[in-house]
Amino acid sequence: MHPVTAAVTARIVERSRETRADYLARMEAARHAGPGRAKLSCANWAHAFAASPDGDKQRMRNPNAPNVAIVSAYNDMLSAHQPLERFPDIIKAAAEGVGATAQFAGGVPAMCDGVTQGRPGMELSLFSRDVIAMSTAVALTHDAFDAALMLGICDKIVPGLTIGALAFGHLPVIFVPGGPMTSGASNADKARVRALYAEGKATRDELLDMEMKSYHGPGTCTFYGTANSNQMMMEMMGLHLPGAAFVTPNTPLRDALTAQAPIRAIEIADGTNAYAPMSAVVDEKSIVNAIVGLLATGGSTNHTLHIVAMARAAGVIVDWTDFDELSRITPLMARVYPNGSEDVNAFHAAGGMAYVVRELLDAGLAHEDVVTVAGEGLRRYQQEPFLEDGKLVWRDGPTASLNPDILRPVNDPFMPEGGIRLLSGGLGRAVIKTSAVKDEHLIIEAPAIVFQDQDELLEAHKNGELNRDFVAVVRFQGPQANGMPELHSLTPVLGVLLDKGFKVALVTDGRMSGASGKVPAAIHVSPEAGLGGPLAYVKTGDLVRLNAHEGVLEILVDAAELAARPRAPRPPAGFGYGRELFGAMRRAAGPAEAGACTLFGDAA
């Protein structure tokens, strides 16, 4: 084991000692209580399967017969979740084949950041994670299940399902993904047309035509943003069947993996020799594995929020210092768009997660001795699924990358460090994704231009006011101010200015999404401006220094002068698009470094 990985893990274990012990005690108590259906009155239990087919009813009369919960984020608006429509029938048939039953226990909401980017609805996005967690709890609280399957893919959905399912961590839980859509238009062409549109050199019809060629069918968007980072993370945490992450939808192999999930969930249920509850799968080591996988593959900055919140749900306490120290010793093995030119299908074809897992384990950067839903520790995940005569089998994945332009070994990486660094200084603590940023852009000292929201910046660019060196400070975008929306709509504009030769950077208490690209962006700045953090005192013209190499985010203004300034007034919360319904969640939200979560009582 690499000494830094071991030291960070040991520190997390010690920091989490009390909260983890409390969580495990609650899960053990829930386990010994047994499934609630054995304790329900006849009337209660009859309600639970009144609409089931006769064969299922006969099996469910037996309180000892396995019953598997299905919790799904299906909707047919979102390409990633549309394939989930077929999954319950596949799962139910597979469960019946082994003498068990499966019930659709509940649905959870699934909104798409790709649809709401730059729109008011984006202010609901982060909090939808916590709504999903609560919806998962509602689905499972009927207490009629021996195991659970989580059907979800995209940005807030998988973290929300994880947080909710961990409240029932005495159950085995397997995540069942849908897979990425097949590759469409090249990412280079997509980026080119987006940049032309930002400059006014492409029409809206031309832009829409390119976007439709990129997002063209069922499945997850193929760039390596939060959705596909989720799938990497589920592999690294041992919550998928091995190799399930990046098999495309509506294929025989995908259907076979979906059918195997309930069978495996029953095999690892309580009372078996292979009992593997979620509370044992998600522990300090598997959380470290998730972080290391994120860093090695250049994954989404959103997971500096989500991994923290997910870990907290399991009684494990991590912070951005843990990410930073692991990043310094984890080499960047992958370049997948927006960190490279090719998509996640090309990453999968090059060796994908099986190769990443093998390399990280062989280098001692990840923990092998963990509980997984597949058994046999994380080493099992260096295998890939195949169909042989219609039967699902696993074989060892490649021992060498099949495309070194996309995937490289630990000893010959794209970068010696992972893609995420901690910044700290007079403006607070923030994270920056460095894996797609050229080295010459990782240090900038320039005057600030302060904006209260992203629309102000876009208007300034439209008016030709930004053709100079500057640091864009976009504030009052934190969780308590407005729900911490992604500001990905700024990427094309700032990228155009960078291409013109100007030195530009973004500093914000908002998010920049898994699609963070070539522009240096200090994001998730904490404490946020809405709570009186330093960003609330910055003025246009103040010199700001961002140095990603040294982990510095400073304002070059005398501290006494900064403190004597009046605080910029916090804009009123938005109304419309459902935002008025989320006021209580904004008030309850904890700081970004604690996961910006509304569920754990961390609000400042």
Automatic annotation (TrEMBL):
Residues 66-379 form the Dihydroxy-acid/6-phosphogluconate dehydratase N-terminal domain. It catalyses: 6-phospho-D-gluconate = 2-dehydro-3-deoxy-6-phospho-D-gluconate + H2O. The keyword Glycoprotein does not apply. GO terms for cellular component: cytosol. GO terms for biological process: D-gluconate metabolic process; Entner-Doudoroff pathway through 6-phosphogluconate. It is an enzyme of class 4 (lyase). Its cofactor is [4Fe-4S] cluster. Residues 405-596 form the Dihydroxy-acid/6-phosphogluconate dehydratase C-terminal domain. Binds 1 [4Fe-4S] cluster. Pathway: Carbohydrate metabolism; Entner-Doudoroff pathway. [4Fe-4S] cluster binds at residues 154, 221. GO terms for molecular function: 4 iron, 4 sulfur cluster binding; metal ion binding; phosphogluconate dehydratase activity. Its EC number is 4.2.1.12. Keywords: 4Fe-4S, Carbohydrate metabolism, Gluconate utilization, Iron, Iron-sulfur, Lyase, Metal-binding. It comes from the Bacteria. InterPro entries: 6-phosphgluc_deHydtase (IPR004786), Dihydro-acid_dehy_C (IPR042096), DiOHA_6PGluconate_deHydtase_CS (IPR020558), ILV_EDD_C (IPR056740), ILV_EDD_N (IPR000581), IlvD/EDD_N (IPR037237). Catalyzes the dehydration of 6-phospho-D-gluconate to 2-dehydro-3-deoxy-6-phospho-D-gluconate. NCBIfam families: edd. Belongs to the IlvD/Edd family. This is Phosphogluconate dehydratase. It comes from Phenylobacterium glaciei.
